[in-house]
C-alpha cells in the first residue's frame, strides 16, 4: 500500500509542478493584464494544491497534514481576492484592453479613461 501511495504522491507532485511552471510561462507570454491575471491564479492554485496533496501523501503525519491543509486554505482564500484587486486596479489604471471585454460592469459615465 505504501508503494501505491508513493506513486500517487509522485504523480501529484509532478503534475502540480508542471501546472505551476505553465502559470509562470503564461505570465511571461500572455499579452494583456486580464490574461496574465488568469494565468497567475487558476493553474498556480491548482498546481499548489496538487503539490500539497503529494506532500501530504508522502509525509502521512497529522502535524504535517494539518500544516499543509492550512497552507491550502490560506492560498485558496487569498488568491481570488488578490486577483480581484489587481484586476480592478489595472482596469482603473487603463491597462485592460477594452476590445477583449464582453461586458464592462466597472465602466461608469463619469470615468475619464
TrEMBL record:
Spans traversing the lipid bilayer: 6-27, 65-87
Superkingdom: Bacteria
Key words of the record: Membrane, Transmembrane, Transmembrane helix
Pfam families: PhaG_MnhG_YufB
InterPro entries: PhaG_MnhG_YufB
PANTHER family named in the record: ANTIPORTER SUBUNIT MNHG2-RELATED
Family: Belongs to the CPA3 antiporters (TC 2.A.63) subunit G family.
Protein name: Monovalent cation/H(+) antiporter subunit G
